[in-house]
Amino acid sequence: MIKLENISFSYGDIEAISNISLSLPAGIFGLLGPNGAGKTTLMKLLLGFLVPASGRGEIMGQALAEKQKSLRRGIGYMPESDCLIPGMDAVALTAYLGELSGMPRQEAMKRAHDVLYYVGLEESRYRQVETYSAGMKQRLKLAQALVHDPKLLLLDEPTSGMDPAGRKEMLELIRDIAKKESMNIIISSHLLPDIESTCRQVVIMNKGRIVAEESIAGLKKDNFNIYEIKVVGEHAPFFAKLRSLHCGVEEKDQTLFHILLPGDVAPAALFRAAHKTGVQIRHFRQSRTSLEDAFMDVINEANGH
Ligand SMILES: Nc1ncnc2c1ncn2[C@@H]1O[C@H](COP(=O)(O)OP(=O)(O)O)[C@@H](O)[C@H]1O
Ligand SMILES: [Mg+2]
């Protein structure tokens, strides 16, 4: 689907993409990286909005930044920034953007209603877009990316600015698209849970480079949940009991411990073990997940720490 060889791009003196090579087959991929990693720039290069300073690449069988018109028909793009035109209502805007992607007017209008319904904006579809909330704007941005039924969907920070409930719904929509349609999808995010909940494969970027390309399963091969606890009482039998349940125990200081619970062991097991061995848990808090640790490790390694 995508093949990049030694692609670089700079904004003036700032090298945003630094000699990237990448080969992605059909499928659903997460593009994960902190702010400024180069995710948006990479998407713009794929779209042909920006032209690489060096290197070459192919997207869906065509050279980068060539045959833009025919390529546009096959790509749906949900940008990170605002792409909505004030003064238009959602139906008119979505249909218009469908036409720009090469659809006949009537078909674009019909599809506009369908996709707005799909993203949950049917009741507000005749409202002017500038009256939309941040969450509604994100939904509309997704709708316009879907209107022409693209083969490849590029979603740039799709949950940006959304409240927790809206975020959850957006991620559900993306999962639904991934399940139902035979679309290839690239989702960029600086939020690990967004990628974890939608993709099986992840490409991690940092400072304009690709620092890891892995399956999510590979990234969290040690699938533990980590809990921070303090215990009062004789802890040796308690920890022995936990180890027999395949939990890891790490001493942080004299009183504070990290318990690594395998993904399939519920935290209640910790309390049962404490009860049985006669210790009291005085402090209990979920710590970072091991996947977050893995992500941070990759970034830190890339930064030379
Ligand atoms: N229009 C621009 N002009 C100058 N620098 C830019 C511009 N857009 C992005 N950058 C810089 O390029 C780098 C990559 O940015 P970006 O692709 O937006 O990263 P991400 O999407 O991962 O946050 C950053 O250092 C950013 O400051
Ligand atoms: Mg970005």
Provide key terms for this protein.
37% helix, binds adenosine-5'-diphosphate, 305 residues, binds magnesium ion, Rossmann fold, alpha/beta, globular, 11 helices, 2 domains, Alpha-Beta Plaits, six-stranded mixed beta sheet
Mean pLDDT score, rounded?
A: 91
The SS-based structural class is: alpha/beta
How would you sum up the global shape? Answer: globular
**What is the total tally of β strands?**
14
The CATH homologous superfamily of the largest domain corresponds to P-loop containing nucleotide triphosphate hydrolases
Strand count, sense and closure of the main sheet?
6 strands, mixed
DSSP helix fraction: 25-40%
- Report the uncertain regions: none
* Annotated CATH topology of the largest domain: Rossmann fold
CATH uppermost class of the largest domain: Alpha Beta
Tally of helical segments: 11
Order of helices and strands: EEEHEEHEHHHEHEHEEHEHEEHEH
Please list the strands of the largest sheet in the order they lie side by side: 6-7-8-3-9-10
Beta-strand content? 25-35%
Which distinct ligands sit in these coordinates? Answer: adenosine-5'-diphosphate, magnesium ion
